[in-house]
Design a protein that fits this description.
Order of helices and strands: EHHEEEHHEEEHHHEEEHEEHEE
Largest sheet: 3 strands, mixed
Radius of gyration: 31 Å
Low-confidence stretches: none
Strand order of the largest sheet: 1-3-2
Helix content: 25-40%
Structural class: alpha/beta
Strand content: 25-35%
């Protein structure tokens, strides 16, 4: 590397000395493009620059590196096109980019995602948003236009659960928040697909089954069946698996209190109700929530007797042939 030259495109974003302080390659070093690329990434990470280009120009005694740097232009205008459903004022509130601040590519991308979320919540899943920045490099100014292509609201005609036999379709529909469109949907906001809500619904459906002992339950596929430009069906394809029950129940490490006393005197809580004994004795349907309640109940049993540092470590031993889960509560009495 014979020389390193810095050229500014538009108003300088910072001093040459700061730029050179963030360039690790030096005059006299062997030229290595990977090292130059690392320096470009380092300069971007300072947050000062919108665009950086490095040209290697041959010279008699090596190469001249020309760093062409463009500072982030000041955002002078934000425009929206194609937006009929939401006003520019409402869309503006969703943006992190502000007039008078530096134009930031990452912020523009996040702003695009926020606008998409707004349309998706209103049931317009196929709406597209792109942003187009226009930079006046000489002046150091820039504008951005969010180009929106709106699509009609798609109503949900039906929600079906293919492969479900243990629970009725009606009961499963009640377990999630994505609902069929009905005459009061205009008031409740239901009956349209909302991406965030739908992602949560898949978790709700899994939790619904696991709270009823179907530990191996899984959603194998989801299909959106278009009935027309404004209607669709949603189909969950599910594998219910086996309903597991508690098999044998044992303790390890309990030297102070026998198993029978713990089982008889531990108090477990389910919502606002309390009961003496574990909530999942042998033969009861196994659920992760029940296991958590019983672990807390055993810890409370020890805590009420002064052993506040006692730890209970439950171990699950599944038996798929019998459809049971054996439980061993490992006790560290403290």
């Amino acid at each position: 590397i014979a020389r390193i030259v810095i050229e500014h495109i538009g108003p300088p974003a910072c001093s040459d000395s700061l730029i050179r302080a963030n360039i690790r390659v030096k005059e006299g070093d062997p030229y290595n493009r990977n090292s130059v690329d690392d320096d470009v990434r380092g300069l971007y990470s300072t947050g000062y620059f919108f665009n950086i280009q490095v040209n290697a120009e041959p010279e008699a005694d090596g190469v001249k590196l020309v760093y062409k740097v463009q500072g982030k232009p000041t955002l002078t205008q934000i425009l929206f096109t194609g937006n009929k459903r939401f006003s520019a004022k409402k869309l503006q509130k969703k943006l992190s980019s502000k007039i008078g601040q530096p134009l930031d590519e990452r912020k523009l991308f996040n702003d695009k995602q926020e606008i998409l979320k707004l349309y998706q919540k209103s049931g317009r899943q196929k709406t597209t948003v792109t942003y187009v920045p226009v930079i006046e490099a000489r002046l150091g100014h820039g504008t951005v236009t969010f180009e929106i292509t709106e699509t009609p609201k798609v109503k949900i005609d039906d929600v079906q659960f293919v492969g479900a036999s243990e629970f009725s379709q009606r009961k499963l529909r009640g377990a999630i928040k994505t609902r069929r469109h009905w005459w009061l949907s205009w008031l409740t906001g239901s009956g349209v697909l909302k991406d965030e809500q739908f992602a949560d619904d898949k978790e709700r459906l899994v939790e619904f089954y696991r709270d009823r002992g179907y530990i191996d339950f899984e959603i194998t596929d989801v299909q959106f069946e278009e009935l027309g430009p404004k209607e669709m069906n949603i189909k969950f394809f599910v594998s219910e698996g086996t309903q597991y029950r508690v098999g044998t129940l044992d303790f390890e490490g309990n030297k102070l209190f026998p198993k029978e006393e713990i089982l008889a005197r531990a108090v477990t809580r389910n919502g606002g109700r309390y009961r003496r004994g574990l909530s999942m004795p042998a033969g009861e349907v196994f659920t992760p929530k029940g296991l958590s309640r019983d672990r807390e109940g055993i810890e409370d049993f020890y805590g009420a007797r002064g052993y506040i540092d006692a730890r209970i470590l439950p171990q699950r031993i599944p038996n798929t042939e019998r459809g049971t889960i054996d439980l061993v509560y490992r006790v560290e009495e403290g």
